[in-house]
Amino acid sequence: MSQPRGEELAELQAQLSERFTTRRPTVAALEERLFHPMPCLDHGFVRVVDYMGDDNAVVQAARVSYGKGTRTANDDRGLIRYLMRHRHTTPLEMCELKLHVKLPIFVARQWIRHRTANVNEYSARYSIMDREFYLPRPEDLARQSSNNKQGRGEVLDADAAAEVLRLLRRDQEQSYDTYEKLIDEAGLARELARMNLSVGYYTQWYWKVDLHNLLHFLALRIDPHAQYEIRVYGEAIASAVKAWVPHCWEAFEDYRLGAFTLSGPMLKVVRRMLAGEPVDAASSGLSKREWVELMAAVRPEVET
Amino acid sequence: MSQPRGEELAELQAQLSERFTTRRPTVAALEERLFHPMPCLDHGFVRVVDYMGDDNAVVQAARVSYGKGTRTANDDRGLIRYLMRHRHTTPLEMCELKLHVKLPIFVARQWIRHRTANVNEYSARYSIMDREFYLPRPEDLARQSSNNKQGRGEVLDADAAAEVLRLLRRDQEQSYDTYEKLIDEAGLARELARMNLSVGYYTQWYWKVDLHNLLHFLALRIDPHAQYEIRVYGEAIASAVKAWVPHCWEAFEDYRLGAFTLSGPMLKVVRRMLAGEPVDAASSGLSKREWVELMAAVRPEVET
Amino acid sequence: MSQPRGEELAELQAQLSERFTTRRPTVAALEERLFHPMPCLDHGFVRVVDYMGDDNAVVQAARVSYGKGTRTANDDRGLIRYLMRHRHTTPLEMCELKLHVKLPIFVARQWIRHRTANVNEYSARYSIMDREFYLPRPEDLARQSSNNKQGRGEVLDADAAAEVLRLLRRDQEQSYDTYEKLIDEAGLARELARMNLSVGYYTQWYWKVDLHNLLHFLALRIDPHAQYEIRVYGEAIASAVKAWVPHCWEAFEDYRLGAFTLSGPMLKVVRRMLAGEPVDAASSGLSKREWVELMAAVRPEVET
Amino acid sequence: MSQPRGEELAELQAQLSERFTTRRPTVAALEERLFHPMPCLDHGFVRVVDYMGDDNAVVQAARVSYGKGTRTANDDRGLIRYLMRHRHTTPLEMCELKLHVKLPIFVARQWIRHRTANVNEYSARYSIMDREFYLPRPEDLARQSSNNKQGRGEVLDADAAAEVLRLLRRDQEQSYDTYEKLIDEAGLARELARMNLSVGYYTQWYWKVDLHNLLHFLALRIDPHAQYEIRVYGEAIASAVKAWVPHCWEAFEDYRLGAFTLSGPMLKVVRRMLAGEPVDAASSGLSKREWVELMAAVRPEVET
Predict the structure, then answer these.
(1) D2 pLDDT band (50/70/90 cuts)?
(2) Which subunits sit against D, judged by 3+ Cβ pairs under 8 A?
(3) Which residue of C has its CA nearest to D203?
(4) What mean pLDDT is predicted for residues D128-157?
(5) Contact D220, B215 (CB under 8 A)
(6) Percentage of chain C with pLDDT > 70?
């Protein structure tokens, strides 16, 4: 499916060749990308298959809420920046994106935690799974981080990586061989046989979400703390969102991705510093962890 | 706004005259209706301003879930009927409708109870309300039902209706005169002055919802037990849905609107009757109310 | 954890031994069951760890909505039956149940599709997975149904079952051996190593849901068409719900579980039959599948 | 109801006098407040009628997600602060609060915009509304703000306030006289007669919400930009939340209420200032509005 063939290829061709006339808000830069799979990991992809709304739909919804007066006070870009800065997010819900995604099951399990979305997933109760599983590239095989419970540390050396990949591949291949045997020879029900496949196997789904919830998803999933394997999908989606609603994306970058929230205690420290008072970890009143987070944000040039 | 003028008219003209080329699923029968206000009550309207998906989007989502095998087993219409009959509703969530609605506040208060939707409402904190309130037609002025706590009974006679309308109009006009005075003369904040206006005044909003939740809304709101004033909007929306997704609408009519749910105890009674046993209220084992409901559904020709 | 030991056992003992005084609605029959794990499958369980509300909370909420008049017209049980029959479900949302569940990942993947709930799951990014996987009992190893794409048919014979279990166990053990090796020897990050484990491995979570959404979950998951492995959990939960809100449960059994919905076309057929007209598949106007479904419901004694 | 009498008083007495034994997490400081109405505005109130969970339920849910290792690394209070600082909000969803609220309709209309909650409202289709409407205190009658479209400016002088109150009272009383006449004399259906009542009339509902969504509600509704009339309710609820989950509340105050989010561009300005560079509005690269917001936050002692 990552290299579509046969039936899939025919469907893709049909989608790409048809043109319709519409009165709906239409975004030329996204139309160009429509249906084209963006490759993710070794066998996955994400592709935009439908959308509703554009930057102007956000402006229109904000203006019905905040009154006609906004029309003169702000241009559209300024209004969108104002909404994003003050977390007035309901106008963003007026836009909707629909994706077709092929992804490993363990990525799907993180993704589905975002509940405000619509999803239809390939069912291994009804259908046979394909022999397609995720194998990381050697450069993505990292050690457990020593200072971060959920993260990765340094990359494995070449020999260790080769051995890891050999083991992963061996088990995945064997479990699929068994899966086939269970279905073809024993005649076992699909809903039972699938239990032998790992969470590295690929599934696929249609996923539809409004822009507000999509940006929340992206804020979490393109964050450096997100697992690399879901970040790849987040970044592919982000590139489509940027083409679709450029003003919203720019405001999102400035006010969400690039933002740093000062807690009340942090804010007091910044005020003292800006008033010329020397403040260090001890005199800050912050916990050690908060002090380090604050310094990394506001004085990145200083070693802590 | 029900008779758009000036600024609104210019915006409407712009929306109607623009045409774009798109690869997205497009429904010609709905495109024709796009942006056109459907009048509701004396000053209200509902108009479709955007949509995503069509009957085929439902089929496509069902097929990713239920497997390719469904492709041969059912044609599209049959598959949609199967989904509706068995309440497999997630594929319906792949379609989305966006409406612009002008409606009395008391109708808005019923409407907003449907939580799975996106809404941006005109704000009386920011903007001045218009002098537009709902006055029923004389034929819609009904007495409290004597046997139904929430319903209407017979229509008022002409004199009584005229007096009711005189009182309603007098109070609504006076409260708006006061509203204007509070704002213009006393300079009172809008968010306070609005408190003098009744729930009969018109507000407006953009409302966006997926097809599954929209059909649930319609099932409740075009039901004969729904208040007439919201049913009018429900029926206008229903006419647009019918043009938009005709297969889904037909299945919805057969399996939801026209359906009757037999409870376990009712089902037993029907079985006994079909086996030739004479059953009456006393021998049915049903409560009186359930017996009446059952007879009205399966033996409508019999007086109960 | 299915046989709690050490730390878990200590926590369980603490939960069971503490008693508090409260003014909150309290259900003695559920208090008795609180915290006790109900075993499910070979290593799983579900246990109630908290609840809010009772039958009376549903009645109280219905009475604020439907007015004081309901107080005289119905006793509590009758009011709850009325609500369930007419799908007035918002009062059911006033009750909440919180569960601790240990379950195979493939069951968790079906379960999580119910989006209106709160969940916190054990994270294999942060923590090491236990060597616990699901192995069906021989009598649960069924063939793929020949007439139902998603279901099971006849049970495997003893030899075939033994061979299936041998293969499943071999692959699951091997993949865990590899998982340990990846973590302990190669030092691979947990978030990567877990990819080698199958969807048959156990995970656990806290899951909290309101009574309306819980009953919807149960209606789907204790249905004979649900996969056996999730039905086991559904039935355990059902037994707790029955102890918790007995009037709601009784009404749910009569009006949801035991109910059959006649479509509009089916209703016409039943009317004709009850009026004495002989109707067969051909003259019914129903599709073949609908005719079979109708006959199975209303004339179960007749072979079709 | 604000001064409960008769039937309400009897129900309140019953609720206050009953005591039960439970194994559920129980918070003594909230038990004391249970059922007691906290007065809001002239006739409204909010009272806690049920709750589920406590600070420890948040910790327990976080630990299942983030692993046992968190047990040694943080004490409970530190873990809750960590969750709040990093917006790991799902553990907060494990707590639930149920309120009984009496409030003016225009406040209810703002409140209901928070969709992730359960609500059962008094129905004016079924029941007669009481003659109770909101009249502000003279000191709450403020002019429209001249620099803030949605806000209030200076308070009216005594004479102007008296005249405003006279007009409000006159119209509200008259519209209720008409309402009574429509129902009692004309026999008009309640669902129609209510249309004559203003959004200043009191309604009531049960409202149930999880702690995450409740804190989001409070962050917006106790903000100085929220309308005074809903802020009063927000502050009453906040006092109950503080008694219920003191660690969560403390962390919420430090990391949400007292926090200030630096946008990417603002963060750059703060870095330049802290590195000793003089920056003014012109050289900051910020829009004028952003510059003012930033200075007010980090250099409140400087006039801008």
Answers:
(1) very low
(2) A, B, C
(3) C64
(4) 88
(5) no
(6) 93
Q: How many other β-carbons are positioned within 10 Å of the β-carbon of residue A157?
A: 10
Using the structure block, give the residue that is written with the tokens 């969807």.
Answer: C199
Quick check: A222 pLDDT over 60?
A: yes
For residue D115, give the nearest of D234, D218, D213, D227 by alpha carbon. Answer: D213
Nearest-Cα residue of chain A relative to residue B125: A66
Check C127 against D69: CB less than 8 A apart. yes
Q: Characterise B278 by phi-psi region: left (phi > 0), alpha (psi -120 to 50), beta (else).
A: beta
Please give, rounded to a whole number of angstroms, the shortest distance from the CA of A279 to a CA of chain B. Answer: 44
Chain B nearest-CA distance from D279, in A, is 35
Give which of B139, B105, B84 is closest to B249, Cα–Cα.
B84
User: Is a pLDDT exceeding 50 seen at residue A1?
Assistant: no
A171-176: Cβ within 8 A, 24+ apart: A171/A198, A171/C171, A171/C174, A171/C175, A171/C178, A171/C196, A172/A133, A172/A135, A172/A198, A172/A200, A172/A201, A172/C196, A174/C171, A174/C174, A175/C171, A175/C175, A175/C198, A176/A131, A176/A133
Nearest CB to D189 within list B142, B183, B189: B142
**Best residue of B143, B147, B167, B203 to probe chain D, by most D CBs closer than 10 Å:** B167
User: How far D207 CA sits from the closest chain C CA (Å)?
Assistant: 8
Residue A199: phi, psi to the nearest 5? -75, 0
Poorest-pLDDT segment among A68-77, B133-142, C170-179: A68-77
Two tokens, residue A51: 């959308």
Q: How many residues belong to chain C? A: 304
Model confidence at C26, pLDDT cuts 50, 70, 90, reads very high
Q: Give this prediction's pTM.
A: 0.95
pLDDT tens, residue by residue, A238-291: 999 999 999 999 999 999 999 999 999 999 999 999 999 999 999 999 998 889
Q: How many CB atoms lie within 10 A of CB B64?
A: 21
Dist. CA D54–CA D60, nearest whole Å: 10
Q: Say yes or no to pLDDT of D73 above 60.
A: no
What angle (nearest 5°) sits at the alpha carbon of residue C8, between those of residues C5 and C10? Answer: 90
Per-residue confidence (pLDDT) for residue D17, from 0 to 100 = 85
pLDDT > 90? residue B73: no
Residue tagged active-site, from A47, A81, A194, A221: A221
Catalytic residue list contains D221: yes
Q: How many residues does chain D have?
A: 304
Rounded to 5 degrees, what are φ and ψ at A87?
55, 40
pLDDT digits (tens, 9 = 90+) for C89-121: 999 999 999 999 999 999 999 999 999 999 999
Which of the two residues, B124 and C69, has the higher pLDDT score? B124
Contact D219, D257 (CB under 8 A): yes
A168–C178 C-beta distance less than 8 A: yes
Q: Is the ipTM of this complex over 0.90?
A: yes
Determine contact, residues D203/D105, Cβ cutoff 8 Å.
Answer: yes
Q: Which residues of D touch B116 (CB under 8 A)?
A: 115
Residue type, B99: L
Q: Residue B25 has which token pair?
A: 């699923």
Nearest to B200 among D119, D170, D195 (CB): D195
Contact yes or no for D150 and B123 at CB 8 A: yes
